[in-house]
Please model this.
Amino acid sequence: MNASPPKRRRRFGLLTIVGLTLVIGLAVGFISGLIETLGGSGTKALQASVLGIGVLLGLLISIRWWRDADEAVREAHKWAWYWGGSAGIAVVVALFVLSGWDLITLNIPPYGDGPDGMLLSGSALTLGLMLAGYLIAWAAWWLRHR
Model:
């Protein structure tokens, strides 16, 4: 019997992920701009389709990366998203409650006019604080487990 070491899967490294997502983002932006320049009745639908394809490709890259990640990396990300993301949402809830009670004035610049702009502003605030919480929790996890 031949005792050869198990074949190690090639890791989907950080530079590969950054490179692929950069190329996808640039392609989506370029194609969307080209569609906008050419115009036509289906401009928005075509742009939405290109964006959807870009998001799908990004999701496939994420799935591939997750499958290649070892247990420590997976645990760090799960822990950071749970605790950091939850803390970010808690901060948003506190801000809106304090603003609703007129204890603070919350001036978020709108991303457009009307209710859509306000919805996008609230979403950006929430996602931004969740990401900040995630990054802090992720760094804390790695510092504790070194």
The chain has four helices and no strands. The radius of gyration is 21 Å.
